[in-house]
Amino acid sequence: MTQAPIRTGEPKGFRSAELGWPELDRIPHPPRRVPLLGDVLGVNRSTPVQESMRYARRLGPVFRRKAFGKEFVFVWGARQAADLADESRFAKHVGLGVANLRPVAGDGLFTAYNHEPNWQLAHDVLAPGFSRDAMAGYHPMMLSVAQRLTEHWDRAAAAGRPVDVPGDMTKLTLETIARTGFGHDFGSFERSRPHPFVTAMVGTLTYAQRLNTVPFPLAPLLLRSASRRNEADIAHLNHTVDELVRARRAIGGGDGDLLDRMLETTHPDTGERLSPQNVRRQVITFLVAGHETTSGALSFALHYLARHPEIAARARAEVDRVWGDTTEPAYEQVARLRYVRRVLDESLRLWPTAPAFSRQARQDTVLAGEHPMRPGAWALVLTPMLHRDPDAWGPDAERFDPDRFDAQAVRSRPAHTFKPFGTGARACIGRQFALHEATLVLGLLLRRYELRADPAYRLRVTERLTLMPEGLRLRPERRAPVRGPGSDLRRPVPGTGD
Ligand code: HEM
Questions:
Q1: How is domain 17-478 classified at the architecture level of CATH?
Q2: Where are the domains of the chain?
Q3: Would the N or C end of the chain have less CB density within 10 A of its end CB?
Q4: d(CA 442, CA 311)
Q5: Is the C-beta atom of 290 inside 6 A of ligand 1?
Q6: Which residues are catalytic?
Q7: Measured in angstroms, how far is the CA atom of residue 293 from the centroid of ligand 1?
Q8: What are the pLDDT digits (tens) for 460-479?
């Protein structure tokens, strides 16, 4: 599918809001501003998203913050965010955290500027890799990676040990994207420590986030040793990917996965191919974007399931009913787990693991009829707050309730109120991949285990551009099989029929 190129003609990179918002004065900001530095009093640099959520509650649906001379506009009101979703007037803005990833991901799909020709080329070449047929092809591999996870959890259950949920979900999602996309096995489940690729990736994400919170001219000085480490991390990522590509070329091609597409497929209209440099950037992009966010989504969902046994029982009853005693659920049986999917959506509502995206004006326009914007002026959509706006989600928006996603409830809400995957032409290309993978894994885990929470655990959310429940451990307990040996059907919990 070829989309019209997005052309805005405005300068790239960071633009302080003074340049683009002629009536910036009308937008509220935190009360105590420090000259030159801005709104830095009491700022916690390791949790910028949760900090912005606190400001949002105090300042309202459109607000601004200033840090080290740079002014940012945040939007989270449902009405205003819906206006920003109008593709005829707004487009993706590569700003802040995303632009900081350019040294590693360059003009890869996620970090490309709208006008860069490689965005359209890569989008058109790679989009068929996310079609329904392609997903059905990935399903058996997703299942086999999930079985590695359950073997690992079985051992923990037998020993009565808790499991490290974010750690294990990260292993699972990394292996899934690496194998389905690139035919590569990182051996994550065989390692006691994270794979060096993961360590390097977490290093670059953390560094990119830190760049947002230090004054730009001072960054080279303040982050000198961190920046050297970052260079080493990027070199490691590049090296891993180059090896992967070399190995693929050496065997003369794979079975039509994403890497084959990147290396072999030509654009249907122009006959162009991705350059070797661009392939490197795309592989890094997909390995990073394809696992970090899904791993967080699964971890939050498991946290809420363990905290709400009645919801877990209802979800489990659905899995038992839909999957019966099939050992290996088929591709079509995953989409039929409607309630499990709602659990996932509700987790992504409260903690959208990619917690913000930016939108810029294509032309002179007025945001929601209130705030004039010049071409190139941009705003950050703060998704966790959009997903809590009482106008869209009601007064109990903090409450975990998967029924918010039943078909009728969804129909009764205004459009553009649920945006965990971004919006428009630059929305997430991996959405179906992530949802299929996560629903499958939740189904498998619910069917196999009771999930016991640590009663002392209080949800703490850690931030490294993406969100993750920090220190979450659960104690999985095997459920009793319903039938004789060889059957994988687990007994439903008594008294919890769906
Ligand atoms: C729960 C999991 C996921 C979440 C919450 C998520 C979220 C997002 C968001 C919000 C964007 C838009 C960013 C922006 O506007 O700046 C995005 C873009 C993207 N995502 Fe995802 N994502 C997830 C999973 C995946 C997976 C599994 C893949 C790959 C297999 C992937 C690959 C990408 C790519 C390549 C883009 C850039 C698309 C473009 O600009 O053309 N994501 N994602």
A1: Orthogonal Bundle (1.10)
A2: 17-478
A3: N
A4: 13
A5: yes
A6: 293, 421, 428
A7: 8
A8: 999 988 999 999 999 999 99
Nearest CA to ligand 1 atom 21: 428
Question: 126 CA to middle of ligand 1, Å?
Answer: 13
Whether the full predicted model's pTM is greater than 0.85, yes or no, is yes
DSSP per residue over 405-428, as a string? Answer: GSHHHHHHSPTT---TT--GGGS-
* Phi/psi of residue 290, nearest 5 degrees: -80, -5
The best mutation among 138, 382, 428 to test binding of ligand 1, ranked by most ligand atoms within 8 Å of the C-beta, falls on 428
| CB distance 434 to ligand 1 below 6 Å | yes
Low-confidence ranges of the chain (pLDDT < 50): 1-13, 482, 484-498
Q: How many CB atoms lie under 10 A from the CB of residue 230?
A: 21
Question: What does the CA dihedral 348, 351, 356, 357 come to, rounded to 10 degrees?
Answer: 0
List, for residues 274-287, the tens digit of each pLDDT value: 999 999 999 999 99
> For ligand 1, is residue 96 a contact (CB within 6 Å)?
no
Contact 104, 76 (CB under 8 A): no
Query: Looking at residue 32, what is its pLDDT?
Result: 77
